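Hey L., structure's done. Input below.
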Amino acid sequence: LHGTPLNNEQTIEEFGLVPGTVLDASIKLLGGKTHGRINHAGKVKNQTPNVAQTEKPKKKTGRARRREQYAQRFSNKVASPNGVHRGPNSNYRPPASS
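Output:
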């Protein structure tokens, strides 16, 4: 063998190998490129601790969901001091009036 590739018709038995001979086979695999070594695959997923999922309340559907969206987008707006509307995820709190 000594680095010679086999044809499709050839078998390993034709080369008259002695029992105990070590073969190094290189086979082309179809598929995408791998990032890093294959024997390290799944390392991060296996290392992360398994955390039980928290129970969450059921989300509203239909009319109730639309009503909640309307209240969130239009009627529950808090005006900032300079009159600019803040986004739904802002942490702006109006100053406490004393």
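The chain has two helices and no strands. Residues 59 and 65 are 8 Å apart (CA to CA).

-- N.
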